């Protein structure tokens, strides 16, 4: 169920792919999603027609290796699970791609069980009686 | 008010356009938005600089015809309306573009009336007294 | 903390950049974020491989100068602050880029303090005891 968007500057296919694996493996390990529960859009921005802008909040030196990771998931994960997720994403992004943890930003947006249809026009987590 | 992002792999303009019409017509029919309430970003990913990754959760065989549909809308739609929306999107995506229902993923993110400004710097659903 | 996505049709780098500055300056002025709290993805759509579609809701004449601005931020801003934000974005987008206010759509999605990791695998707003 998590839907993930990953944005990076001038990344090649191999780097995008490895970033995607880092995030997915971290999700499986820390919040227990099934391995097949993988839905990602990964975009390399060229710096001309599409840009990434960044500052130094909260006192972090970033550079163009920056990665933005946006995860939409149903509500209900505990703060501890979320902290474990952030830590593991940063570790695996470094391990799989060499991206330094200072360059990894992650944020979550939550919705509810009724807000997902994985296929076939069905609300899988909250089906109607006759589905 | 719904804001819609549609992502597809190597789609041409005609397919993107038809997918957009499928989602919009389904929104108009099932949750009653005005026909002019249309705000979409539609992206064809080339598979090199921008990618889509997918698994088989929850036991669905997907392929590169996959479409991700992300809809942001104000809170308050009932579960039945949301189910009707998913069903109709899958039907119309198939009817307009031949996309098989197994390849159509939809998810919703809700916000509130104050969270929308359609134009002119005004919060249309929750204006100030002097707007 | 706000994470911002800006979408525009056939914009050059200078226009994208100026739109980004308009949104960021408005955020700093109206909701008091630190100047270094800047995280944006800005995309120019070519109209062929990536599209923007729009209607006239709620009785607004738009054209291809249209800009979509999506802002994710933690919950808790008052309605008045949000109204001030919309107004200032429209003003500065016009001032910096000539974009007419009728062509500026803004929407907000809120999450919580625990939902942000700015870097280093840490939940900066809700750290664990030992972080």
TrEMBL record, chains A, B, C:
Transmembrane domains' residue ranges: none
Top-level lineage group: Bacteria
Gene3D superfamilies hit by this protein: Macrophage Migration Inhibitory Factor
Pfam families assigned: Tautomerase_2 (PF14552)
Alphabetical list of SUPFAM superfamilies matching this protein: Tautomerase/MIF (SSF55331)
Name the record gives this protein: Tautomerase family protein
Naturally occurring in which organism (per UniProt): [Actinomadura] parvosata subsp. kistnae
């Amino acid at each position: 169920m998590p839907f993930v968007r990953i944005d990076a500057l001038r990344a090649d296919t191999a780097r995008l792919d490895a970033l995607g694996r880092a995030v997915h493996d971290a999700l499986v390990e820390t919040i227990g999603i099934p391995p097949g529960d993988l839905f990602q859009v990964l975009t390399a921005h060229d710096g001309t027609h599409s840009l990434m802008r960044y500052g130094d909040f909260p006192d972090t030196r970033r550079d163009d290796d920056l990665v933005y990771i946006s995860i939409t998931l149903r509500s209900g994960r505990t703060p501890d699970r979320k902290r474990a997720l952030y830590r593991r994403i940063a570790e695996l992004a470094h391990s799989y791609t060499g991206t330094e943890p200072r360059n990894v930003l992650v944020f979550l947006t939550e919705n509810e069980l009724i807000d997902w249809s994985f296929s076939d026009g069905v609300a899988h987590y909250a089906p109607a009686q006759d589905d």
